[in-house]
Amino acid sequence: MAVGSEIVTKIVSVKSTRKVTTALEMVSASKIKKAQDQMHASRPYTSKIKQMIGHLAKATPEYKHPFMHDQDGARVGYIVISTDRGLCGGLNSGLFKNAVIHMREWQSKGKDIDVVTIGNKAASTFKKTKVNLKANISALGDKPELAKLIGVVKVMLDAYANGELSHVYLVYNDFINTMTQKPVVDQLLPLPATEDEEISDNWDYLYEPEAKDVLDQLMNRYIESLVYQGVLENLASEHAARMVAMKSASDNASDLIKDLQLIYNKARQAAITQEISEIVSGAAAV
Amino acid sequence: MSTIQCDIVSAEKAIYSGEVTMVIASGVAGELGIAPRHAPLITQLKPGQVRVLLADGGEEDFYVSGGILEVQPYMVSVLADTAVRADDIDEAAAIKAKEEAENLLRNNDKKQDLAMVQADLAKAMAQIQAISRLKKNLKR
Predict the structure, then answer these.
(1) What's the pTM?
(2) Which end of chain B has fewer beta carbons closer than 10 Å to its terminal beta carbon, N or C?
(3) Which of B39, B43, B85 lies nearest to residue A208, judging by beta carbons?
(4) Over chain A (286 residues), what is each successive 10-residue block's mean pLDDT?
(5) Do A206 and B10 touch (CB under 8 A)?
(6) Contacts of B104 in chain A (CB under 8 A)
(7) What is the ipTM of this complex?
(8) A26-193+202-244: what fold?
């Protein structure tokens, strides 16, 4: 009997969609733990290096690294970290909205905007807007390596050191927990002054080779590690957001299937009732 | 025997942490042996080994591809680089990242992308349909 065959087809297609969304949900759920571990693993480096910069800045007051004082460049730089793939709810769009609002503020002050992007989604968004897309790196995968970020970060750092940029910001999703990710726009450069109170001023390091060289290297590594940290936070956020988005998609699919099943059953029942009444009335007529 | 706290970290993970009697590393200005209560020192490292001597006479070796070593009287920290770093390699990476952006801007391949995705989707749909039809026929 061909009652409601179109409903059956619909049910089948929703079911297969649900299969996909559940699979995606489970994949993200399994990856999120690893992403979180990576995030935590990179923290000691950042805190160590920060501490060292604090010491060095104090120890060699005669040499001020360019990253530590304001530049009066005509442009403002942004490093935007996004995901490579979609299907993660409003994670990227929320982030870009925040970034664009922040950029508008600078544009209204007459500054041009330079952007380097990490991840496909940011690249495809910002190439359509009125900003200069300077560099891009994507396909970092589930285990991002710092080595891959060196290029894009260097583009920004060089521009800042040459006095082209007045500020550099880092835009990414901060992973708070599985349910919450917060889009943030952090100022990378000039570095906010660090105050390290515990060390008295009466000592200094021995430097090999020169304080300036060491400080230069430290500064670059520090910025790179901050960007790397941002990439990891964003990765964890991506998996969390995708998990939640796919979970609700699966739930919606289940609801839809339930409703469709009900409609189908009703239609079938109606057809049977009609047939019986036809037979009965036919028998009565005989 | 007195010991000193040694931490070796890279941006990607913490590599080693523990009490050691000596840290041996190759700085840009030469080999270094750091014993407890060494004067505060900070140096760039060359690619090479970092060896730590343990209190029980054991020894552990790590390879670093450069980095920075910091000595405080009570601790040694090694900030290891995870990749081989040199100015020209960094420069090449920067140029590559720029080219990537230029490529993105040059070929406005939005439509092309869409067409490709649509073609893939159509193919997948056709496959699914064929499979489900096959299954139906088998049932009958």
Answers:
(1) 0.82
(2) C
(3) B43
(4) 81 94 91 91 86 74 77 90 90 94 93 93 89 89 88 91 92 93 91 60 74 85 92 94 94 95 94 94 89
(5) no
(6) 123-124, 127, 133, 136
(7) 0.72
(8) Pyruvate Kinase; Chain: A, domain 1 (3.40.1380)
